[in-house]
Amino acid sequence: MIYLKTEEEINLIKVSAQLLGKAHAEVATWVKPGVTTGKLDAVAEEYIRDNGGVPSFKGFNKFPASLCISVNEVVVHGIPGGYVLKEGDIVSIDCGVKLNGYHSDSAYTYPVGEVSKEVMNLLTTTKKSLYRGIEQAVDGLRIGDIGHAVQSFVEDRGYTVVRELVGHGVGRDLHEAPEVPNYGKRGKGIRLREGMVLAIEPMINLGAKAVVQERDGWTIRTNDKKYSAHFEHTVVVRKGKAEILTTFDYIEKVTANTSLMVEVQ
Q1: How far apart are CA 56 and CA 66, in angstroms?
Q2: Any idea what DSSP says for residue 169?
Q3: Residue 29 φ/ψ, nearest 5 degrees
Q4: pLDDT at position 258, please?
């Protein structure tokens, strides 16, 4: 069942998304060599709860943390803990917030200190592909149009799309129908209708597309152990042009003129 959201519900998700964006920015100030992923998680949880929200991920299917923190070859669902960030790492921070009964969901991948040009190009391309997908989240188009836009953009540049993990609907539940793959064919799949709220989240690999799950039951990494990047926005399908409900603005005020900035020209 796909739930179309009312304008009132969309506004509630937008309020949740503002808190989420600010929580991301709080975490961004701590993304630097020498900081543990567990510290980042603690910063996020404290900020979200202090501002009246609930971390969407904590306890979801027994996930033990507020953030999914995925370093280097980890694609998604990395569990925060004692890992110490070091120069040259990349770290994907995926966060969800529940506020006033509604979830929002977004992710951002940061370079830690100086990274190679090859790795920075992966981050930039993945971020750009997110917006290519969002451009297709328009009433009357189809789910396959979103996936095709992401897939064609990154594959034309030599990267690969993870197939086992997809975006999803968002609302009263963190994960709702429909699934939103990052690959697909134009004109195929469920027809998009105004009021659908979707988390679009390209997960793009520097090497091959194959992934494996670690023994913890959560962590997904690339099979070839090459780096993977992940960016995500929660958006609402509109007529003519999608509306982005989450925001990177707070992150990018913090990261402007620092090595953490991932620019999209």
Answers
A1: 7
A2: E
A3: -65, -15
A4: 80
Has residue 244 been placed in a domain? Answer: yes
Query: Domain containing 109: what range?
Result: 7-255
Q: What is the CATH number of the domain that holds 153?
A: 3.90.230.10
The set of residues, in sequence order, having a beta carbon less than 8 Å from that of 2 and lying 6+ positions away, is 169, 176, 177, 178, 190, 193, 196
pTM for the whole structure: 0.97
Structural domain count, the chain: 1
Contacts of 261 (CB under 8 A, 6+ apart): 252, 255
Buried b (16+ CB within 10 A) or exposed e, 101-113: ebbbbbbbbbbbe
Instruction: With respect to residue 242, please indicate whether it lies within any of the assigned structural domains.
Output: yes
Low-confidence residues in the chain, pLDDT < 70: 265
- How many Å apart are CA 114 and CA 120, to the nearest integer? 9
Say which amino acid occupies 109.
Answer: T
